[in-house]
Amino acid sequence: MDTKDDKGSSFSSSIVCCQADDCTADLTDAKKYHRRHKVCEFHAKAPVVIVSGIQQRFCQQCSKFHELPEFDDMKRSCRRRLAGHNERRRRTTGEGSG
Question: b/e map of 22-37 (b: 16 or more CB within 10 Å)?
Fold first, then answer.
């Protein structure tokens, strides 16, 4: 059975589940964000998740899983995205002080 989402896109009505290995969470009634990115709320916030047999963490900026070395300490955003964010913040504050 095909249905339409909010944007008019057609998709199959198969059950959407979390990408984490061995996670049985049914995302049918989950928030739209979690359904879109195929990650349950627990694994979106977990410090370590096994995906495809590899230890990873869900990046809240990229909205996808990265391997653990791409994160600083327990942060939920990868280093690359944080660097871009910090650069934009420095540029914004630097312009206002001149």
Answer: ebebebeebeeebbeb
- Mean of all residue pLDDT scores within the chain: 86
* Beta-strand relationship, 10-12 and 49-51: unpaired
Distance separating alpha carbons of residues 23 and 88, to the nearest angstrom: 37
pLDDT at 9 over 90: no
In the prediction, which pLDDT does 93 show? Answer: 76
Cα distance from N-terminal residue to C-terminal residue, the chain: 60
Q: How far apart are CA 50 and CA 27, in angstroms?
A: 18
